[in-house]
Structures
1.
Amino acid sequence: MGIDLAFVWAFLIAFVVLAYVVMDGFDLGIGILFPLFRAKGDRDTVMNTVAPVWDGNETWLVLGGGGLMAVFPLAYSVVLPALYMPLTAMLLGLIFRGVAFEFRWRTKRWLSVWDWGFSIGSMVAAFCQGIALGALIEGIRVADRAYAGGWWDWLTPFSVATGISLVIGYALLGATWLVLKTTGDLAAKARHIARPATYLTLLGMGVFSLWTPLIGPHYLGRWLSFPAVIFSVLVPLLVLALVAVIISGLNRQKDAEPFLAALGLFVLGFAGIGISFYPYIVPPSLTIADAAASQASLAFLLVGALVLIPIILAYTAYAYWVFRGKVRPGEGYH
């Protein structure tokens, strides 16, 4: 029996999306928390913690979007019109945030404008990512292999709650990243922010986990069937364990533990979403097999992916290695 390339590509796309979430999540979190750091010196240091890596982190977003279009064209053609508004707003937020990131270093008169632009762009991008995720989980109406819903179907209480939860989760990643990368009063303030962000993230994950099975019987049945039921028992315990690691690390003034445990929360949440979706790529209408391109196209693209993805991983790891360590006031990439 041959390898099912559609499911190989589903795994690769999921990996790329997860890489984007965990890497770009903490620098979006930096923007979300930016207004809480009022001194210009603190803001400069905060931005310098992500200056060498933030634009490289967004490589994964481009790769994920392009990969979805190439290998799951039907899913792309359905999801895009269903989520035009939040996805367009997300891209505008990312663009404005990127422009603000560069311009704030080169102006004095408009510094406060670009500071707010950086923060608002980050919040909008994070919130719209959560909106899109929530709308996708609730389901997209499909008829005759095309989107059959309305313009505002993406806007629901569940999608808004998902957007808010993702903003809080990214704020936790940003705060623990600052614990890892800064020193002195700035690191102490980051620890102070990270504690309530941890509890709010736990609350958001709890609400999300309890609400999702109520959306449709396919989710409830999925989580109550074997072997997913094992994961449904283990996940709450693992989440609580990671929350304990974060709080313990913050209390003991550990640098890396809170950030790594916060990443673990996102990995668990992402795994839970994957289990809920399988075997669908656009629930509850399109399965992975339904939406995939031809086997010949998948095989051809897989050759390129097996070359490209390791290269991206290598230069990303090298960038993080070169710019490892603490960022102190007055030091930075700019």
2.
Amino acid sequence: MLKLFGHFIQIKMLMLLILEMAVLGGTVYYLLSTGIHSPQLLKDIRGQLGQFSFLFSIVVGIAMISMGLYSRSAMSDYRTLAIKVLIALALVVPANMMGTTLFREELYESANANAYWWIKAPIVWLLVILLTRILFGFANKREFMKRRIFVLGSGTRAAAIRQMAFHGSNESFIVAGTFDPGISYDVREMRDSYQSVADAAAGAADWADVVRRAQASEIVVALEDRRGLPVSQLLRCKIDGINVIDYQTFCERETCRLDLDELRPSWLIFGTGFTRGIVTDLLKRFFDIFVSSIFLLATLPFTLIAALSIKFESPGPILYRQERVGLHGGSFMVLKLRSMRQDAETGGAPQWATVGDPRVTKVGAFIRKARIDELPQLINVLRGDMSFVGPRPERPFFVDQLSEAIPFYRERHCVKPGITGWAQINYPYGASLEDSRQKLSYDLYYVKNHSLFLDFIIILSTVRVILMQQGAR
């Protein structure tokens, strides 16, 4: 696992991205250059062909990242994988057509490109993806592609790690064995090291040797009570090059969220993350203004069409203003296109939106699924009330309720709320206390590790959420 700008990325998925882009770029360049029979002409336009091949592979890579084709669970469901590839194809085709327009003269010189290259290039991409994904899927099932971890503990934390290991989307680690200093030794996955449970118990005195025989590259300390922690043996393993990591950090790395049930203030205080500074804040603000201005101009036609549709369908204002909780618990008025009847909450307390909510109008149902109703929030971003990326802003009524029921809930307000966020792209629409707990685990991960790099990944992933209509109500 690679930690890049505070965000955990699977090395093998990063290598798959680099491999596919390199193979695709090389294949496109080879096909273009073989169509030129004049050595002098090939020499003259070799650079332009290389630029086109490189830019095409970059565009394809961005499209595939936006569709989640390099996520942790990208290879766990082949049906979803196929759908994402087809949607990514819909993004690649227009980008390729624009590329062929920019390099029209150079591509015209190639016999392989002057006839329907805008169709040929996506087909080449599909063939490359088919080949690399089949090979990667075959190799990814092999044990050598997974890290072997050793779990120190046998309580709820150790059980949670085992549950993660046997989850269908886990493709990064296997549990080589477990050991609890105060109870017993588990050798169900250590058959090659010991012949019986009795042999394992006899070898428990030299616990560090047991870890080495298991060929574990990492020890996860998942003890419920750290009294009696085998410090000397852990130190010996650490010196021998075996990584030692605590349960909460392991959970954060493998799931990209924080385990609220096991979260302790001491871990947040003494751990990494939560970095702030004047330069960081200025870059974040510049990023917000730049991205929001582009999106505001690009989506203006959709906003106008939606506004007219709202006006014609039902009486009431087009824009909906609602109080939300922002940075450090302060309040602001969020702007949204009205998607419900004007009397949606007349005479009643605020309530969660539900599936098939009768308060939602026909136009409202569409703009909510397409996220068009949230486009006016770009004005909130330009005002400085919100950031483009951040936790979802909630109403004060719900914040008070959730803060009493869920520990660390108010900590999500130490950054500006956002139009899109880490929780929004990883978890469906929250409409209950349990949903709010799950989303908070992702929000706290973002608050702890937020950076422009993570913001960029979230913006790309938002394309997938919109196109696949994930989590809308």
3.
Amino acid sequence: MNYENMLTEVYASLPEKKSSGERFEVPIADAFIEGNKTLIRNFDAICQTLRRKPADLAKFLFRELAVPGVMEGGRLLLQTKVSDRLINEKIGLYAQTHVICHECHKPDTSIESHGRSAKILICEACGARSPVLV
């Protein structure tokens, strides 16, 4: 039996890939603790997936985690030890409240500012508008 035939048999015996059926999945943070600080290496990629400004997501995480931090290039540095489980929970919460439409549950949204503190989540799919807490 040659290599090509063996490879074909192996691929045939593999189970089918299962997906949730959703086209949008909340990104998972690549975070690690360095000394007494926590670094999120893929922070820029998370912001691009969520289609939000890094400053907005960073501000949300600082407030929710009650920890100071700073953005360094495409990374986010938190000034204390935070578990990656907690960081991913907060990113999921941000996606539910600031990214996913409350009416049609699609991620095709944008945030529009009205004044200093009023922000509105506008769905590009269904046109729904809903207020967002700042």
4.
Amino acid sequence: MKAPLDLDQLQTFISIADTGSFTRAAEEVHRTQSAVSMQMRRLEERIGKPLFEKDGRTNKLTEEGDRLLSYARRLIYLNRETLAAFDDQRLEGTIRIGTPDDYADRFLPEIMARFSRSNPRVELTVICEPTPGLVEHIKRGNLDLALVTHNDTRGQSEVVRREPLLWVTSANHATHEQEILPMAFGRPNCIWRRAAVDVLDRQNREYRVLFSSFSATVITAAVLSGLAISVLPECALRPGMRVLGEADGFGTLPDCRIGIMRGQTSQPEIVDALARHIAESLDNISVPVGEETGSFDFAALAFAKMKRTKPSQILPGW
């Protein structure tokens, strides 16, 4: 029987993958560079596969290394969760978190489940508002942490996930073929709205804003009913939506960057723990393919639409 994997080696492996550098990883795990190199040689011997390859001055994961990374993150997280379950000094208190409702639908179940299992004595208070409102709450001290759409002009946030921003319409209507495009957007200060308007203006496409709302539910309803077109990140796609691309006459949009903002808090340990759980959760979340349930791999669709100009694809219901 093979010996179990070494968790210290896996933690170092994750640090190298995240930083792209043995030197920076050595600083993070408080080891010498030679010790880190030795750990990775032993891990490669244990796995029986090469895990890194040189890419200029950085260390790039091989295909086998990329496969190991997801397992390594899960093993390290499970180790932390196990230790927390038996820690008499585990975190206790209340933390206030904010997120837009489109992120809440997709990400909060995983985040809350992971965090609550490890920190059962911490009470989460959650509010759902658009990013501009959450930024103001952070500035006023009303929130300890917020999951926001990253914007370089709005203040600092730590980017923890990137997704393609996509043009969407109803799969059952030809709304996108109208001469004057009816649009459903967030409020005027919405970064996705500004990105979409910039693309439409550059293409000299005629449009009118038919619906404007801070609610993702309203935008989704307008799209699914065939009343309007909108732009949504991959995480907000729903069954019955159709993704539009260059073949349909719609230009490429910038990526959506999802970030964490921290407020002033008297409980930094809890905030740090929750931020770590959010980053780990968002790094692991994907939409599985399951033909038996009629589900669809949104990530594969989004990637294909960014790389190809074939006709639009339909997201079937399940």
